[in-house]
Amino acid sequence: MGELVNRIWSRPRGEWTRVLRNELPSLADEVVENLRHRIPGFAELLEDSERDKVRWGVEQALLTALGHRKAGEDGAGEPGAASGEEALAEVPPERARRDLFEALIGEVAVSERTLVELSRAARWPLPETVQAIALPTPGEAPQLAAVLGDTLIGAVGDELCLLIPDPDADPGPTPDTGTAAAQEGEKDPEREPTPAEPGTRAALETALRGRTAAVGHVVPLNDASSSVRWARRLLTLAPARSGPEARVLFVDDHLSMLLLLQDESLVRALAARWLKPLVGLTPRQSERLQMTLLAWLEGGGAPEAAKALKVHPQTVRYRLRQIEKLFGPGLRDPRIRFELEMALRGRRLMAQVDRIRRHASRVSRRTRTGAPPGVRPLGIAREARVNGL
Which of 133, 189, 122, 187 is nearest to 159 (CA)? Predict the structure, then answer.
């Protein structure tokens, strides 16, 4: 018995059902044999009973001892109708939901049969696609689950995550956009322009309003861990906000940023490799030329860069001549220009992330010492708005 428990607990929770189903019949036979040899009179009792019925009774007792069946519950009445698999369906739905969540996002692959069994026990039909939501405050998950419908909830690290089934399914008639716009007021100036989204996005924004949350991208069911991973990653990159300043972030709005920042060490190496010609300049000179070069690469010309930087075009042309002296004719190579733009964007993003982390660290220290939080520095808000965070 102890060996079975150890084998079950050594596996991810999503595989407990499979291990128990495979091990239960042989364990029941072993128990019956031990009882027959060690308890006087048990052998005679077996002669008067069908061995299958005795083994079935032992299986039910083992399931009760392992917490997969409540004590006192009646079985199906016949051994053939109450196999270990059917008894496992009696796992409480809430527990089965937690196990199903862990099976879907775990690193160990789980068989389709196991997922189907967990799905049946959890009363949560397996969808074609899912979308994750990461929350920094676990206490809000039950209320959100009630609003969003039939979701799976589970803890991942320090965050609580929800899995929404089939988020791209047809939501039915959508409300009149003119009325919605009148209710919402003017558009948030910090928000990045995005194409029209299905009704699900509007529903999520309404349900999550006033909370800090990150919504992952829609993925096939077997890739649920990816949606969870990137939602959690986006949550760590977001500035800490509460109350009216809290915002919902969508992975779909920040794909290029997440792609660039998926390995911060590589981002720093990329910047060091391609921006090496700026090393000999003062910090102010280097920052000015980096801003000019990035504006030029993004805009495609001096007038566009001047407009973005709010300086005179002649100033941009002067700086571009300095940049050409430093970087040489490579600026005309499309591949090198692409690498330079990635390096400059990556360095800018890393600077923003570093500022956000320092700010979060200061807030954390104030919280521990009991000092008032104060006003968030203007520089943090300004940097965060660059990428819509």
Answer: 133
Give the residue-averaged pLDDT of 345-363. 76
When the pLDDT of each residue in the chain is averaged and rounded to a whole number, the result is 74
Domains of the chain plus CATH, in order, are 1-46 (no CATH), 93-168+201-261 (no CATH), 264-366 (1.10.10)
Residue 363's pLDDT band, with cuts at 50, 70 and 90, is: low
Beta strands at 248-250 and 152-156: parallel, antiparallel or unpaired:
unpaired
Question: Can you state the angle between helices 112-122 and 16-38, rounded to 10 degrees?
Answer: 90
- Residues 80-133 have pLDDT tens digits of 444 444 444 456 788 888 889 999 988 888 888 888 888 888 888 899 999 999
